[in-house]
Structure to design on (387 residues):
């Protein structure tokens, strides 16, 4: 009879451990550590994410119940205490797991994937989401007068929906402030929400020889330089070349822009897009902006399926450590789905792993089996009547 490691052990073999060890050495995470290493901390918090544990006590009890299997997961000591894990989350630099997340993201972005458009330019979407916190407990996470929060500023690669950059800040940091720190390669296309309307930001993207697509604000002052011929496509209303006329607008962004008006045939809503890309068709520009919704779906999935709303520690370091390891769990699931060539969704894969986390069977067999649905009762009766 063939012997198989547990599903969780097979998942850990996918993790590029040498990359994590490089990050640990860079920030001296294992200095003076004898037993509970940064690898053990990563495994414990990854288990916390994959199994949906509710608290630090719940996590420690669950791991201790599998004490005989912890050695095979890289634990030198089968005993884990709450204080040991809590101290590790509070003291060990979160930058270890932030850098590991970035390294893991670069590996996954190198996989052959497509964003679904015919052009070869890389397509990104940038946005931020708020994770609410109790201000009296998380005093460092100021947001409102009586409310605390952290923000996840995320740059999502729309080829495979892989987050290639995530900055975790307090709730007061504005999205545009983080957007100004982004750097793109010539030809890249980034999609913004209307809240990112900042003309200096537009100029920075122009200097990088990249392109942007954004919705126009209603109070934008401009003049039409030229009307472009409009192809016969459902929903397209106008395609114009404009220039800003406002005093500060034309100083910050003196270049010409393309203004496209579009009506969604399904909802009947009107949209006005601004872009510095003059080569693509107006229908393609409208379809590109529609892809911005993928970053919202990413935020929804992470908040609902991963543990980033209740935390194991109250310090800033503990919160950021948990968030970055949760994002590593998301990347591992994406990588696993690509390697297995499965048609199952991310949610289905997550549920299968959660239920069979310590089952001893091939991991790929688990996530590649088709879900067998029961045959409807009416169909069974028809089959019996045919005999």
């Amino acid at each position: 009879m063939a012997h198989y490691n547990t599903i969780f052990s097979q998942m850990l073999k996918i993790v590029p451990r040498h990359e994590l060890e490089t990050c640990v050495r860079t920030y001296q995470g294992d200095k003076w550590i004898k037993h509970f290493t940064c690898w053990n901390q990563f495994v414990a918090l990854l288990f916390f994410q994959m199994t949906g544990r509710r608290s630090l006590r719940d996590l420690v009890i669950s791991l201790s119940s599998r004490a005989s299997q912890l050695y095979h997961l890289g634990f030198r000591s089968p005993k884990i205490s709450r204080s040991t894990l809590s101290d590790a989350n509070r003291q060990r630099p979160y930058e270890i797991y932030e850098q590991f997340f970035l390294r893991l993201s670069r590996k996954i972005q190198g996989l052959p994937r497509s964003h679904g458009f015919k052009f070869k330019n890389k397509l990104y979407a940038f946005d931020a989401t708020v994770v609410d916190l109790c201000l009296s407990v998380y005093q460092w996470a100021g947001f409102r007068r009586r409310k605390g929060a952290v923000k996840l500023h995320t740059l999502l690669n729309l080829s495979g929906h892989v987050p290639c950059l995530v900055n975790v800040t307090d709730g007061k940091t504005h999205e545009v402030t983080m957007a100004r720190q982004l750097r793109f390669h010539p030809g890249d296309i980034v999609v913004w929400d209307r809240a990112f309307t900042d003309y200096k930001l537009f100029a920075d993207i122009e200097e990088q020889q990249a392109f942007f697509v954004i919705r126009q604000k209603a109070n934008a002052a401009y003049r039409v330089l030229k009307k472009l011929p409009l192809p016969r496509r459902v929903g397209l209303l106008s395609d114009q070349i404009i220039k800003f006329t406002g005093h500060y607008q034309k100083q910050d962004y003196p270049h010409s822009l393309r203004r496209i008006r579009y009506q969604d045939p399904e909802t009947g809503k009107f949209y006005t897009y601004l872009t510095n890309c003059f080569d693509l068709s107006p229908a393609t520009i409208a379809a590109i902006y529609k892809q911005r919704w993928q970053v919202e779906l990413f935020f929804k999935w992470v908040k609902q399926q991963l543990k980033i709303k209740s935390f194991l520690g109250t310090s800033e370091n503990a919160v950021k450590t948990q968030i970055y390891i949760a994002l590593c769990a998301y990347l591992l699931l994406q990588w696993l789905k690509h390697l297995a060539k499965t048609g199952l969704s991310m949610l289905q894969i997550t549920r299968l792993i959660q239920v069979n986390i310590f089952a001893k069977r091939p991991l790929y067999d688990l996530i590649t089996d088709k879900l067998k649905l029961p045959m409807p009762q009416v169909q069974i009766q028809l089959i019996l009547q045919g005999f």
